[in-house]
Amino acid sequence: MKKAAIIEFFARLAADNPHPETELESVNDYTLLVAVVLSAQATDAGVNKATRRLFAEVDTPEKMVALGEEGLKRHIRTIGLFNTKAKNVIGLSEALIRDHGGKVPANRDALEKLPGVGRKTANVVMNVAFGAETFAVDTHIFRIGNRTRLAPGKTPLAVELKLEKAVPRPFRLHAHHWLILHGRYVCKARTPECWRCIVADLCPYQPKTPPPSAR
Question: Which of 131, 144, 168, 201 has the largest CB neighbor count within 10 A?
Answer without folding.
Answer: 144
